[in-house]
Design a protein that fits this description.
Elements (H helix, E strand, L loop, with lengths): L1 H28 L26 H12 L2 E6 L2 E6 L2 H10 L11 H7 L9 H17 L5 H19 L9 H17 L8 H17 L2 H8 L9 H25 L9 H16 L2 E6 L2 E7 L1 H10 L6 E2 L3 H7 L9 H17 L5 H19 L9 H17 L8 H16 L3 H8 L9 H25 L9 H11 L10 H32 L1 H14 L14 H14 L8 E2 L4 E3 L2 E3 L4 E5 H5 L42 H18 E4 L25 E4 L2
Parallel strand pairs: 4-9
Antiparallel strand pairs: 1-2, 3-4, 5-6, 6-9, 7-8, 10-11
Helix pairs in contact: 4-10, 6-7, 7-8, 8-10, 13-19, 15-16, 15-25, 16-17, 16-21, 17-19, 19-21, 21-22, 21-23, 21-25
Length: 710
Amino acid sequence: MDLGFSVATYIVLALSILYILNILYQWNKGNVKNFPPGPWALPLIGNLHIMGLKKQHFTYLELAKKYGPVFSVQMGTNKIVVLAGYETVKDALVNYAEEFGGRGKTRIFQNMDKDFGLAHSRGENWKVMRRFTLTTLRDFGMGKSPVEESIIEECSYLIKGFESLKGKPFDNRMMINAAVANIIVSLLIGHRMDYEDQQFKRLLSLTSENIKLLGSLTVGIYNIFPFLGFLPGDHKTIEKNVEEMCEFVTKTFIKHLKNLDENDQRSFIDAFLVRQKELAKKYGPVFSVQMGTNKIVVLAGYETVKDALVNYAEEFGGRGKTRIFQNMDKNFGLAHSRGENWKVMRRFTLTTLRDFGMGKSPVEESIIEECSYLIKGFESLKGKPFDNRMMINAAVANIIVSVLLGHRMDYEDQQFKRLLSLISENVKLLGSLTVAIYNIFPFLGFLPGDHKTIVKNVEEMCEFVTKTFIKHLKNLDENDQRSFIDAFLVRQKEEAGNPHSYFHNENLTRLVRNLFSAGMETTSSTLRWGLLLMMKYPAIQEKVQQEISTVVGLAQPTYSHRGQMPYTNAVIHEIQRFADLAPISVPHETTRDVTFRGYFIPKETYIIPLLSSVLRDKTQFEKPDEFYPNHFLDSHGHFVKKDAFMPFSAGRRVCAGENFARMELFIFFASLLQKFTFRFPPEIRDSDLMPDVGFTNTPKQHRICAFPRF
């Protein structure tokens, strides 16, 4: 035992000596001939012991007196050259502009902007962004009369603010910050913001806080020793503030995108979005982008997307690898699975849904029954304003629930409400900035973020599914299959002796979760968009109601009425087109090397079929950016099918529940418009139709009034 202890001690000692020698070797290796002089650096910490981290420039000024206008210091393991004095700084930045023109790597700035934007980006990205920024600012009047007029106008607001205080003592920081910020704000978003606007005050507060924290001791240490980033500190507060600011910017540019007029650019954001659109025109309908280290091919426009997904269905029929989706379903189920597992699950799903009446009378009866519950729910509110999200989610979810479980669930069932809440939360979080970053840089998965909440929510849903199918298994009658779960369990028993069977519990759990989530979210969001659009365009709502009265009267609308109601059918199609629920679709992947439209695309390339560009293709729709039901009507008022109508995607990966959704949308929409007239609450005059931030384009939270028609 003593000998063993002695050997272990010597090994540790030897490794420690080798480690120290390696550090010293690396230290000396970094020495460059004729490198600027500077104070002696200690191992690991460098010159940290002599620096005033809160006011570094004072230390640098003192060192310049001793070592001259060009000297070096060492911060941790990083060598830094400091330039001091007018002649030296001018010589470097002007006469050696190219050589000294890079952007230094500072960890906190890298975390804040991810090397994007302008201030902290590098290389070609910086050149392009700087060129665009300077050109656009000049176009909007930088250094000219328009901006001068804006400054003068803002002065008047600031002066009024000062005057209102009547000589009393006050802190001028927030007011001056707001006034100065409004000059650039008016350029960025096309209008100034009121000094009392809570969102504006919050943004100013975040900016001020970050500026202060960037000079803190903990951030200084983090920049020198980034491996300490897991510890709590101001660097985490800064990143959280930046994310909040970015969320505001994202919501703002989505709003601008909805109302974008390429011929009337009123802000910096408009100019950027127009330039973004020009990329597709510049590079054509097939182009590539790079997200982190991943090459992505984007397909734009009806002809291109149809060609890829239909004519090259096999080659473009794979499912793109997205880290968050892989974490959610472990490559099981249907929505995000691949290869043979996907083929078997899709075949089983389509067959079983048809057996349970998809597109036929049994499901139609279930939808009509659910309509009656939804109508009762609306009636109970007696025209008072309410948020329709949870009720519509529950009604739509119950259609797929009745197939999956064999029965509907009550709207007030706490388990049901919890499941609906988890799905809605995940749809929203899947569109968040932190999840997008995680998908690009999955090695950051250990950090806290929305990706962890999503996976936690999925596991809670899967736990419910597991408990449910265990219950079904106990009461399973192979000769009386009453639900999708029963059908799966029977198939599982039939293949019990096959070690390679795909009918295992993990696939059942993920498959049911996929169908539950997809069966609720897209159709319910479309219905909510429909009612919102009817409130915004009351003349269209009235015309739909007239057609329902003429064709159906007081009878229950059925799917067979669709052919007799061309205008209502056109309105529903236009709701789907205009809502543009899945603008970038669910990602695809090439299953083999393919040459497509003259471009070579390797196997396993991540593909984005830009469905938004199909549904808003100017060659297919007369007024692509407007809500215009005539897109689906001919000159005689007859319904017209459009090949470019692809809200369910196309090809091998087309939505498995498309027929379900079509029937649900028609019966729910026609039944609700038959019974109610929908209006905005008295205090609301209009809606800007800006979608909420999320994986899909869902309506923002709003309230409606449902007034019984008779």
